[in-house]
Structure formats: C-alpha cells, structure tokens
Amino acid sequence: MKPYYEDKRAGIVIYNCDCRDVLPIVEAAVTITDPPYGVGYRYDGYADTPANFEAIVLPVVEAAAAGDAAVSMSMRHM
C-alpha cells in the first residue's frame, strides 16, 4: 500500500485509506483514525466533546511517548 505522505527522517507515514486495510500491515506506537474528533457529532452512546476526546486520547499518547509498547486504544461508535 502506498503512503499518502511519508517523511522517513521524522518517522511519519500517513495513509489515506480504510484503516482496516492498513492496520494489519503497519507497526505504530499510535494510530488515530476517522477524524474529526470532539466536534459535537451526535452518537447514541458517547458525548463527542473536546474534553471527552482529550480524556480518552491524551493518556494513550502520553503512554506511547513514554515507550509503552503495550498501549492500545479502540473507540467503538455506539
């Protein structure tokens, strides 16, 4: 699969595709999919606010930055 954007020196690769196609073939500390987040979209079981997004994502990003390879995050739309 060809990246949409890649900066090898910075270690950044961006794919513009269905995440189910790319997740099985990449190794990443953090994967964020399906933006935008925290913009008030109406879900049945989740309040899509900036504060809720930050509360979910910030601990994951901090753990990944600290080198915790076991970090995993999954958000399911209810």
Word description of this protein:
The chain is globular and about 35 Å long. It has helices spanning 19-22, 50-65; strands at 5-7, 12-14. The chain is 26% helix and 8% strand. It has 78 residues and is α+β, with helices and mostly antiparallel strands. The termini are far apart. Residues 71-78 have low confidence and may be disordered. Strands 1-2 form a two-stranded antiparallel ribbon. Strand 1 and strand 2 (12-14) form a beta hairpin. The chain is built from two helices and two strands.
How are the SSEs ordered, and which strands pair?
Blueprint: E1 5-7, E2 12-14, H1 19-22, H2 50-65
Antiparallel strand pairs: 1-2
Distance between the termini: 30 Å
Low-confidence segments, given as residue ranges, are 71-78
Number of helices: 2
Q: List SSEs in N-to-C order.
A: EEHH
Features:
8% strand, alpha+beta, single chain, two-stranded antiparallel ribbon, 2 helices, disordered C terminus, 78 residues
In short:
With 78 residues, the chain is of the alpha+beta class. The protein has two helices and two strands; from the N terminus they run ββαα. A two-stranded antiparallel ribbon has the order 1-2.
